[in-house]
Amino acid sequence: MNDDQDDIQLAVQRGAALLDQRCPGWADLIDLRCLAISSHRHCILGQLYGDYASGATRLFTHPKWVANAEARKSGFLKPDAWPDTAWEDLRDAWMAAIRDRRRGATT
Question: CA-CA distance, 37 to 55, in Å (whole number)?
């Protein structure tokens, strides 16, 4: 696992823990068949709150630019410095986190 993948895992763990607190049962509401982290409607927040912006506003009660920074730290957005392939890596990490929660194996 390279540094970017470690960062992705940590970010998704942070985001999943936040959702565990703020939106219990969230993992059961995600349709893995259409999960696309780069999509404003099919990303984690889009599926939970209707679209990315609504979800970011609900989770991060900060101005938009701060909410986006927090979303990046929590695996909801790809940081600009990460390669485009990170979208797929984020999706894979979220899918693993969701499957763990569905099996009752949260960290």
Answer: 13
- Model confidence pLDDT, tens digit, residues 77-89: 998 888 999 999 9
pTM to 2 decimal places? 0.89
Q: Is residue 84 domain-resident? A: yes
Q: Is residue 107 part of a domain?
A: no
User: Is residue 3 predicted with pLDDT exceeding 80?
Assistant: no
Structural domain span for residue 85: 3-102
Domain count, the chain: 1
